[in-house]
Amino acid sequence: SLVLFIATIGSSSDLIYYLVLFLLLLLSGDVELNSGPKTDDGSDISLLI
């Protein structure tokens, strides 16, 4: 599915943009899953809700 996703992107600049966006989504998801003492940048507020 990742190959199809890359194939639908037109230029290389769009590829870099979506790749960075995809990595940010992975990092944000990883922070939510591994919400430990290493994430102290206001992530405690989401845990209290």
Outline the secondary-structure elements.
Layout: H1 2-7, H2 12-33, H3 44-48
Keywords: Membrane, Transmembrane, Transmembrane helix
Transmembrane segments: 15-33
Keywords:
single chain; 49 residues; membrane
Short structural summary:
The chain is built from 3 helices and no strands. The chain has helices at residues 2-7, 12-33, 44-48.
Provide a descriptive summary of the structure in words.
With 49 residues, the protein is mostly helical. The protein is built from three helices and no strands. The N and C termini lie far apart (34 Å). Helix content is 67%, strand content 0%. The chain is elongated, with a radius of gyration of 15 Å. It has a domain at 1-33.
Count of individual helical segments = 3
How helix-rich are the residues, as a percent range? 55-70%
Q: Quick check: average pLDDT?
A: 67
> Judging from the principal axes of the Cα atoms, what is the shape?
elongated
**SSE order:** HHH
What is Rg? 15 Å
Transmembrane segments: 15-33
Keywords: Membrane, Transmembrane, Transmembrane helix
